Amino acid sequence: MSLRLGSIAPNFEAETTAGQIKFHDWIGDSWAILFSHPGDFTPVCTTELGEVARRAGDFAKRNVKVIGISANGLKDHNRWVEDINEFGAKYGPTDVQFPIIADEDRKISTLYDMLDEQDATNRDNKGLPFTIRTVFVIDPKKVIRLTLAYPASTGRNFDEILRVIDSLQLGDKHKVTTPVNWNKGEDVIVHPTVNNDEAKVLFPEVTFHKQPYLRTTPLKVE
After folding, report:
1. Per-residue model confidence as pLDDT tens digits over 111-131
2. What is the rounded CA–CA span in Å between residue 20 and residue 148?
3. What is the three-class DSSP state of 122?
4. Which residue has the higher pLDDT, 52 or 130?
């Protein structure tokens, strides 16, 4: 199954460290981040899950739920959470409360096309392909708005993931896009579908640049 930006995130039922879930019901009216791991007790992923736990408040204030998925069972997941909390405490209070999906048979990883097929030897002791380290950002309508796939050697940047969510949520609320290296509070770009007369009304501080397709404006938001 090929998933693209704009696709509806496939629904599924799964066992997690927080109990049985139906994915779409679990998302509800929130945004969601689904991020995958090739296996429990892996070093890079251990640092990532600790960071996500420490930043629970950043996700909550953006109405974002976070859920992990790893190709192990619940017993291993629960033991891994103990490791994550212990190691993560080196960097600040760490308490993993978000669910982690058990995906031993790779059914959900296959559904979301999260399997590493670049190397025929990249298989576990059951002969199953490893999952790749993918991030999906999904909006309340269950639409996939962002996908990122990371190599096993490189830890994910959750500052960047939060930055993209800020941009997406701002664009959904106002008729704007965001420029290169944009961060929350900086000037934004007026959406191309907004004509100049409308731009003057919607954005009184708009700047019209020499390039007629480029109009920027500050945008005061909470």
Report:
1. 998 876 654 455 555 656 566
2. 26
3. coil
4. 52
Tokens 């704009």: give the residue: 6
Does pLDDT of 42 surpass 80? yes
Q: Please count the other Cβ atoms lying within 10 Å of the Cβ belonging to residue 41.
A: 14
- What pTM was estimated for this model as a whole? 0.91
Give buried/exposed letters for 1-37 (b at 16+ CB in 10 A, else e): eebeeeeebeeeebbbbeeebebeebbeebbbbbbbb
CA 196/CA 173 separation, integer angstroms: 19
- The CA-CA-CA angle for residues 163, 164, 165, to 5°, reads 90
State whether residue 204 is helix, strand or coil: coil
- Read off the DSSP letter of residue 68: E
Q: How many residues belong to the chain?
A: 222
Residue 71 token pair: 């190709």
Q: What was the pLDDT predicted at 132?
A: 75
Structure tokens at 214: 């480029």
Backbone φ and ψ of 99, nearest 5°: -75, 150
DSSP state of 210: S
3-state DSSP assignment of residue 24: helix
Q: Which amino acid is at 108?
A: I
Residues 8 and 143: beta-carbon distance below 8 Å: yes
Position 94 confidence tier, pLDDT thresholds 50, 70, 90 = very high
Counting Cβ atoms within 10 Å, is residue 133 exposed (0-12), middle (13-18) or buried (19+)? buried
